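Title: Prediction job returns without error message
Component: structure pipeline
Severity: low
Priority: P3
Assignee: unassigned

Description:
Job completed but the reporter wants confirmation the result is attached to the right record. Sequence as submitted:
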Amino acid sequence: MLVTLDIPEELALRLTPLKDQLPQILELGLRELSASSQTGFAGIAEVLEFLAKLPAPEEILALRPSETLRSQITALLDKNRSKGLTPNEELAWEQYQYLEHLVRITKAKAYIKLKAG
């Protein structure tokens, strides 16, 4: 299928060398756009993107959830206490719990690395 887009010249210049990769770029962009609209993903993505940068052990130990992530977790906790969670909210809660598990493991390994070094 042929698609014609009207885009700013600056963007066109950046995309020209990547023209063979445009389908992949669009697919990844659509995935990110879709994921960012899902409840809770933005906070989780922040943590995963931070860890993907392979930060120093000190940076890992200093990692704290963003205000956005804390607010999302607090809202789920409050709702669970008052009226219960929907299946989608339960899934989001499970994702937060798993993320916390991964961060704890990462922090433990960072601590060990600091003590050994």
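Comment from assignee: result matches the submitted record. Helices lie at 9-15, 22-36, 41-52, 57-62, 67-82, 87-116.
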